Amino acid sequence: MTQRFWYVCLVLALALPGLSACGNPAAKKQKYLESGNAYFKNEKYREAAIEYRNAIQIDANFGEARRKLAETYERLGDLPNALGEYVRAADLLPGDAEVQLSAGNYLLAARKFDDARARAEAVLQTDAKNVKAQVLLGNSLAGLKNFDQAIEEIEEAIRIDPTRGPTYTSLGVLEMARGKAEAAEAAFKKTVALDPKWVPGRLALANHYWSVGRAAEAESELKAALALEPGNPVANRALAIFYIANDRGADAEPYVAALVKSGASPFALADFYLLRNRPDDAIAQLQRIRSDGRSGSDAAHRLAQAYAIRGNYDEAHRVLGEILKKDPKDSETILQTGQLLAQEGKRDEALAQFKAAAEIDPNSAQLQFALGRSYAARGDMDQARQAYNEVLRLNPRAARAQLEIARLDLVAGKPQAAIQNARDAIRNEPENVEAQIALVRGLVANREIAAAERQLDPLLQAHPKVATLHVQRALIAVAKSDSGAARRAFEEAFRLDPHSAEALGGLVALDTASGNHAAARSRLDAALKTRPDRPELLLIAARAEAGAKDFPAAERSLRRAVQIDPSLLTGYVMLGQLYYSQGRLDDARREFETLAERQAKPVAALTMLGIIAQAQNNPELARKSFERVIDIDPRAPVAANNLAWMYAERGERLDVALELAKAAADALPKMAEVRDTLGWVYYKRQTSDQAIAALQESVRLDPRNPTYHYHLGLAYVQDGNVARARESLERALSLPRFSAEADARRALAGLAATPASAGR
């Protein structure tokens, strides 16, 4: 800037004190504020936001600009940013009651109840009769589960101003929260009586009627609200949701259209068509929206979804490709591309897309969740768990991630962990039926049958048409050995959902278990006739065929399943197990090698390869396989047990063998073989008292196994307890023949010269 220009500015500033001075930060920020206010008044909210942000860049403590920016974000529907700016504005404008209350209500919605309470109390310190602050305080206390004090605060607000209808609405909500439906209804009716033309009051009463199952009265109140304000977007949305929830889609459509007409939700009708599986109508609506050129990528994403629903994947990819040409790093579009590929069964390609998107936006919980689902679909459970845990790091309240981890726990045979994760998901989303089903599954797996029934019964009463719940009823009956009840429940599930693989699999399993292979085959043929390329049906068929000893048919079904879906890891596992059961060990080995190549952490596949190597009398290869497993997961119980046994048999690395055996025993406390391994390691380490304790437990768990009695006898010999040693060895030799029988006879003969009274 030249010296002359500075001089001009100084002259102007001195001569015209009221004029905005050149380079004066205070004047500049005020100018941005006024410009923002002008845009705001003309409903140009994006432009207003830019001006307010410009003002804040000059002065981060400009409270009025922060307040206006918060209001602008509110109008734009950007509620997280509105919350942040309201809180900052409230901190900068402590004497402004309205901004304190706005910040408090946003904090309340964000479930930050202590912070909301503090804002309310700050207002009440200077204005004890502020009704809005009393209501905010009451609602905050309710969030903190202090319902009695919350009611007191709302009642105090009513005493201050008994004519204010919204206060009664808050009272009704609190009464409902503490289970007093009649008191809640009285409060909601009082709201309507005080101001019959106040639409939110009628909507609150309608919501109450709906929540207590009085649908006709709810519908009547919703219509009354709309009669007062036919264009009210909240009322139109409420009535549309009511009809959709009650399977009255045709009745909902006019109200969804009204939402679009009001401008409140331009995509509402397209979304409605997508929800109702009407892709052609959705495409027509979205193309009209795109024609005005203002919809951006939102319409394109929905259009791709509509094409996918119609089965036109090429067109869907074309639409998404147009976006990526303009912005190759649009992570949302890359995510949707991956989702399309997953729908097409191209799991490896889908995973590549999810990884690429996550590299661009590593802090997206949605992307991490998609990664988890993709890994789980490929059977890579460790990577899936890692992705879901990352979701929870980014969003600790992500119930869906907690639910998926619970499902992984069930697959991994960890029912107690599954129960805990399912309960965490329910805490975050109490109405999540899938999380409640996961809890039932976990309880059944943990043999807590009575608790599972208590959890399931109210769910079935509330959702009698949900097939999955009847499947859970069947599984509980199976756990109780009530095959008749199990069959009835599976049949009801199948009636409700003829595509339920769980229900079909359950019925086929019952047919196979009862020896009725013809009935099982008939069910499978009917299902495969309409869906011949559904891999999960082919897996069910393979199980039934193997149960009927038709191993060639089982092999054909499994081969067909993995041909359709090359990433179907369960198919490779079943093929390997089928070959192993037939003694076709080389074929089994090839399947598990294929499986190991497809997983990042192939614990199960490598464990089976070690077992196969043992069966083929190749101890070195077995040892290497088990050691690879332990490198991946030091607590993998089967590999830990087998490797500990191998070390003990060789008399090598006994310290490592003991740690492995302990880990296996912790994971499988009720497995006799694992207790036997632990006892054998102690025996090899010359710690006979600990060996005896472990081997006694193995004998208790499986008293018909001669090897366990033999090992216990040797431990007693080592301990010098001849009488007990002779008793255990004789018991071993009285049972069916076993591989170490000759050794047991020699050990017993060695005791012949020792008096029976010798030892402890």
Could you walk me through the main structural features you see in this protein, from its secondary elements to its overall organization?
With 760 residues, the protein is mostly helical. Helix 16 (268-275) packs antiparallel against helix 17 (279-291), helix 17 runs antiparallel to helix 18 and helix 42 (706-719) runs antiparallel to helix 43 (722-734). It is built from 44 helices and no strands. The chain starts with a helix and ends in a 10-residue tail after the last helix. The protein is elongated, with a radius of gyration of 35 Å.
Overview in brief:
This protein has 760 residues and is an all-alpha fold.
Report the count of strand segments: 0
- Give the fraction of residues assigned to helices: over 70%
What is the count of helical runs?
Answer: 44
* Silhouette: elongated
Structural class: mainly alpha
Share of residues in strands: under 5%
The averaged pLDDT comes out at 82
Main sheet properties:
none
What's the Cα radius of gyration?
35 Å
N- to C-terminal distance:
104 Å
Descriptive terms for the model:
single chain; elongated; 760 residues; disordered N terminus; mainly alpha
List the helices and strands and how they pair.
Elements: H1 3-15, H2 25-41, H3 45-58, H4 63-76, H5 79-92, H6 97-109, H7 113-126, H8 131-143, H9 147-160, H10 165-177, H11 181-194, H12 199-211, H13 215-228, H14 233-245, H15 249-262, H16 268-275, H17 279-291, H18 296-310, H19 313-326, H20 331-343, H21 347-360, H22 365-377, H23 381-394, H24 399-411, H25 415-428, H26 433-445, H27 449-462, H28 467-479, H29 483-496, H30 501-513, H31 517-530, H32 535-547, H33 551-564, H34 569-581, H35 585-597, H36 603-615, H37 619-632, H38 637-650, H39 654-667, H40 672-684, H41 688-701, H42 706-719, H43 722-734, H44 741-750
Helix pairs in contact: 2-3, 2-4, 3-4, 4-5, 5-6, 6-7, 6-8, 7-8, 8-9, 8-10, 9-10, 10-11, 10-12, 11-12, 12-13, 13-14, 14-15, 16-17, 17-18, 18-19, 19-20, 20-21, 21-22, 22-23, 23-24, 24-25, 24-26, 25-26, 26-27, 26-28, 27-28, 28-29, 29-30, 30-31, 30-32, 31-32, 32-33, 33-34, 34-35, 35-36, ...
